[in-house]
Amino acid sequence: MKNWLFGNHPGAFLLPAALVFAALVSCGGSGPSGIAKGVREKPLPERAAEIIHERAERYAGQELLVVDYYRIYRKLAYPLPVTEIHRPDFFVAGISKYPWEIWMTWELEERINSLGWAAQSSGDESLRSLVRRDLEALAGWPEYDVWESPHLSGAHCARILASAYKNWPWLGEELKRKIETALGRIVNSFPEWLNDGRLDLTTAQAVLDSPQRASFEHNIPTIAMIGRALAARIAGHSQAQAIETHTGALVQAQLDMRSQGHTEAISYDGYILDFAADWLPGAQEDVRSRALEHPALSLMLDQSWLMSAPGNVLNVAPFNDVEPREMPFHAGAHAKLLALREDPRSRWFLANCPLEWLRSDALAALAGLPDSSQAQAPASGAFEGLYTMVLRTGWDSTDVAVAISATDASVGHIQNDKGTLVIGSGGNWLVDDPGYQQYVPGLEREFTLGPTAHNYPVINGVLQKANRVKRLDCSGRDGVLHAAVDITEGYEPGRLDLQRVVRHVWLRQAGDKTVIVVADRIQGRGIETVDYNWHTHPQAALWLAEGACLVHLGHSNLWIDSPNLRLEGRKIVRLPGTRGQVTVQAQAAGADDCCIWWVFTLGAAPAGKSLSADGLVLEAAGMKFSPE
Predict the structure, then answer these.
(1) Which CATH homologous superfamily contains domain 23-31+42-367?
(2) Which residues in the chain show pLDDT less than 70?
(3) Distance between the two ends of the chain, CA-based, in angstroms?
């Protein structure tokens, strides 16, 4: 990758019982030592306490458990206390067995944790009574999983019961005995699963070498096993040690796989870590140490700040199946693991989180953290993450970040979107992506997975059908950040005669402007058209001026411009199935060797630009750029 730029270029889950929730109002909190702004004046533990008590007050007044099935635009109201896994007889198109119980147990966990930790802090007997009632009902459920193998609902039920048993001494002995029995039933709920040889996989290597490896790569079996390990500990189960050993092997294998490039993106990687952080405090010391010292643990945790929009560290880049607001489990992992390992960047991250987005077990974990002055903001620059490359000027709302999808991982939550980029500032992603794929057939699923879903170049109408990408560069030189990815092998096989498709992205601050330059160098035969779909933030306002499109949101002005194309109002559309994004569409004429340029400018006006006669050198923001 020589001469890509020239001009100026030289070359507690289970918190110990002693950590009572009163610590929330007595323990000091650490603020960031970096440049991030907007941190609240109150100490972190005090803010966490207030949020939990607010939630507890809301839950205490409810007579029904309201569960938001946001992916299918449904809300259900379950009678309280919840006495079983209900199977609502509601039709969901294209999904014969909808997993209603997953969101229900998520919400039930949030309710019980909010009420329980508020009761622990305040001693309020009315809150304690509600918690006892909900837990007694949960302990009496006839079943905890309704699938053919252990699943997420059983894991959450086990975690709810185990956490309550461990942390709230006021439950009473009778209820605790019922919880022990319920946890034993959770472990025993799949007897064939306990006796099919799976527990013989006692090391990470055995898991990785197993013919069943593919079934272990997904988050569900690991989370389900961790839930049963938590249950077996308290139930005193006869196979507790075998389950414990196998769980340790699975956790270690998940970390090893991340070192090899495997990922399920931040929401599901964080989901695994959140449960692992609950299990690790009770694990054998050598098992715990191996996990905490594993290089992939930091790699996974670093995704939280690496992927964040400047100005909102929880608003992660919407690549693949991620839900920044609905699935903040990765933040819970940061909070819980700080009790086991010091990490200044985790402290900085948590101090800058919008705490309203965190789940209550994460807020409770913040209670046990001692005061520390070790919080430290990460450096800005060019970064390679598990499934992205990121260029960023910093972390403030006025900073800019560009994230580029770049992974070979091929599990279900990873989409075929290599080379797609998003641009963030002001706490938002101004150039956006549909994010989580929709499972219900129809226009929304087409919008999230179809030909207009992402902004990599669509060549002759052909999409990417495989997770194949080569990372060519991710670096910073002379104040310019650069990333390059080869996405040639990602396109549907047999449809195109391609030699090479490389996307280059540069980020440069120039005076009062920040400029992102994108060059798509496409080489092959029979290249006739190249289509683009730049999605904008759902709340953004748009305007056209001299062939460039302004994307305005809050205090951010982003201009989308191209020396190859003049943008037209009739091609700025709201596509069928969109969840609010308006899309700037454009089609460029192809050639056997072509380079198509885009210039994105954060500022009052587009950056000036000029293109060489051969189309391979762009001058913008006082610099010359070339993909050669």
Answers:
(1) Chondroitin AC/alginate lyase (1.50.10.100)
(2) 1-41, 371-373
(3) 8
